[in-house]
């Protein structure tokens, strides 16, 4: 074939994610229903009762509303923001790429604070922008130093910066004062404040009023909050001028009709969501306590997930897969000694601890 993709596409590195890889588990003689998945950080107690029944009644023979009008109205009421300041997307990853396509120019310096979500760099590369990296130090449990970030912003004058809060995979959560300090330093820098996991932070602050400024986009994930990874649903909140620009770039019908209807419905289940968050915190405490007793180093986290130092993450994960358990190998984050775990139900957490105990006693993952 004479037609070829752009030359740089062949060198574009894709981003690893959590979740089930079907070819892998098939090789071990397992099926998806045999797997307990601790590698994804979604709410294991969602969606609320009755949601699956609603899905079957949605008229999929119709095109979805390109404006997601009803869902944006419900989000508007929940957030206290006009619908014009909200854009719904097929997950936050789509919105990240939309922002890059809309605002990043070739060669633009874009600040990425690592270790963090790998799709930020992919979006930069797709837009031809230039990643500028700041990496938090392991000796400080990968906690960002705001004074270092301020100095980097002053030095490089980035066109934009990604700030994942709480950060993935570390779970570190910055205060309003810290975020505003960064914003005040980069007044001409577009801040992409990725709050995909903010619902899981117990003592979170409301960032929405930051959008009164014209240089910030806040991203949130209904996929994570309400356990809807199969539907893909997220939204951006920003100054109306930013939302208008993003909407022009967004594909028509980018959020399917099922996702829109389910998203509108789950927003009416605030009490159920809060109950589920309490159960997640209980499971997180259970897991951390058990892992400490097994002798593992568990890093402090403000989110529902946390890092565990295991020595050789790839081998450790592979050994657990054989037992029908998935955890996140953090090698792709540049953390080859760490896995990330997101709590599930207590009985499932007990199975994880049992499987870890077995592979430790057998020494199987040390021998791979």
Structural summary, described in words:
- This protein is of the alpha/beta class.
- The chain has two domains: 7-46 and 271-367, Aspartate Aminotransferase, domain 1 (Alpha-Beta Complex); 59-269, Type I PLP-dependent aspartate aminotransferase-like (Major domain) (Aspartate Aminotransferase, domain 2, 3-Layer(aba) Sandwich), CATH 3.40.640.
- The protein is 38% helix and 14% strand.
- The chain is built from 13 helices and 13 strands.
- A hairpin with an 8-residue loop joins strand 12 (328-329) and strand 13 (338-341).
- Helix 4 runs parallel beside helix 5 and helix 11 (270-293) packs parallel to helix 13.
What's this model, at a glance?
The protein has 368 residues and is of the alpha/beta class. The protein has helices at 22-27, 51-55, 69-79, 92-103, 119-127, 146-156, 176-185, 222-225, 240-249, 257-266, 270-293, 313-321, 346-362, and strands at residues 36-37, 86-89, 109-114, 130-135, 160-164, 190-194, 216-221, 234-238, 297-298, 306-309, 325-326, 328-329, 338-341.
């Amino acid at each position: 074939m004479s037609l070829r993709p752009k030359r740089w596409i062949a060198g574009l590195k894709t981003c690893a994610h959590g979740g089930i890889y079907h070819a892998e588990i098939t090789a071990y003689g397992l099926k998806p229903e045999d797997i307990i998945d601790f590698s994804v950080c979604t709410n294991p107690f969602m969606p609320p009762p009755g949601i699956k029944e609603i899905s079957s009644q949605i008229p999929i023979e119709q095109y979805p509303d390109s404006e997601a009008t009803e869902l944006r109205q419900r989000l508007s009421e929940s957030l206290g923001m006009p619908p014009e300041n909200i854009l719904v997307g097929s997950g936050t990853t789509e919105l990240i790429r939309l922002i890059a396509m809309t605002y990043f120019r070739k060669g633009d310096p874009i600040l990425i604070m690592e270790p963090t979500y790998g799709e930020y760099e992919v979006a930069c590369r797709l837009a031809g922008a230039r990643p500028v990296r700041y990496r938090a130090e392991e000796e400080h449990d990968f906690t960002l130093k705001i004074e270092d970030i301020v100095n980097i912003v002053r030095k490089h004058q980035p066109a934009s910066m990604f700030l994942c809060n709480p950060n993935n995979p570390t779970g570190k959560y910055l205060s309003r004062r810290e975020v505003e300090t960064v914003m005040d330093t980069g007044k001409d820098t577009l801040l992409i404040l990725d709050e995909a996991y903010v619902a899981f932070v117990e003592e979170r602050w409301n960032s929405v009023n930051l959008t009164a400024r014209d240089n910030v986009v806040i991203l949130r994930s209904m996929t994570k909050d309400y356990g809807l990874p199969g539907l893909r649903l997220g939204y951006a909140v920003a100054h109306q001028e930013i939302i208008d620009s993003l909407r022009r770039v967004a594909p028509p019908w980018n959020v399917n009709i099922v996702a829109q209807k389910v998203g509108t419905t789950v927003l009416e289940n605030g009490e159920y969501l809060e109950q589920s968050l309490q159960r997640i915190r209980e499971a997180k405490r259970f897991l951390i306590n058990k892992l400490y007793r097994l002798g593992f180093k568990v890093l402090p986290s403000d989110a529902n997930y946390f890092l565990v130092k295991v020595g050789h993450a790839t081998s450790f994960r592979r050994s657990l897969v054989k037992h029908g358990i998935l955890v996140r190998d953090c090698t792709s984050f540049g953390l080859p000694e760490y896995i990330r775990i997101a709590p599930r139900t207590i009985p499932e957490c007990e199975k994880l601890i049992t499987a870890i105990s077995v592979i430790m006693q057998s020494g199987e993952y040390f021998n791979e």
